[in-house]
Design brief:
Blueprint lengths: L8 H4 L3 H4 L5 E2 L8 E8 L2 E12 L2 E8 L1 H36 L7 H32 L8 E3 L1 H14 L5 E7 L6 E3 L1 H17 L5 E10 L2 E7 L7 H4 L23 H11 L3 E7 L3 E9 L4
Parallel strand pairs: 1-3, 6-8
Antiparallel strand pairs: 2-3, 3-4, 5-7, 8-9, 9-11, 10-11
Helix pairs in contact: 3-4, 4-8, 5-6, 6-8
Amino acid sequence: AEEVVGRHAADAIPGWTAIEPSIPVADTPTASPETEMLPLELKGREAWLSIAAVAFAEGTVYAFRDLTADRALEELRSDFVSTVSHELRTPLAAIYGAALTLQREDLPLDEAQRANLLAVIATESDRLARTVNDILWASRLDAERIQLDVGTHDPRELARMVVEAAQVHLPENVALRFVCGDDVPPILADPDKVRQVLTNFVDNEVKYSPEGGTVELSLERRDHAVRFSVSDEGLGIPPSDQRRIFDKFYRVDPNLTRGVGGTGLGLYISRELVRRMNGTIWVESRESEGSQFSFELPVATG
């Protein structure tokens, strides 16, 4: 209050002179004032304010509501609808096209062609299932409907299961390597959730390695925790995106300029699952040099 009380609005509010003409002013106090939503640069950040004004004999009274968070959420929702529409439309089109081709009686297909079309249907159906599953998981996390089955488990075995499953669908130009020290102790965690996070990390590293390379999953003991790390030699993540990479709906490449799709939910789900297991999660990356996603979970004691 001491910074603004008694000062003219143009001096107290940055950018006030530019936005004041856009604010509708009601003529009488009894009138229902219209509101205008306008951006304002405040201390290095953009604030969106809903402003209403009423004229009095002595001057004008302005009422402000800070809707910055509401606008950001609305933009996220809009982006999410657009993203999910794209993520659903693409596999649906492929499935529909393959199914129609298989149904055509005027187009003879040999066994290899039929097998390829069926493979398209199976692959794209799996992609659809993963997209829907991400949406359901995010909804369950928001509603706090996630139950954990925490116990003592061997992290090497959990990681090895993820590596073996990933090898089945690994692109030919990507090599997956598993590195684990001899002194890695049991962890206190939910095994299904650990595998889910690791699977998401591995899938991401493969997806962001379009030119191929090595994806490495490593385990090591760090004081009272076990660190899981998955690294690649791919596209990397710009520094400006790294602080938001685990936010819900956030995608590094929203316009698909690098050909990498996704709902923007996988890393958010991973963050929330790790947090609920009393762990920490982070990313280290240099653009065009690859990324490393890591999380630590507590060592089981007793």
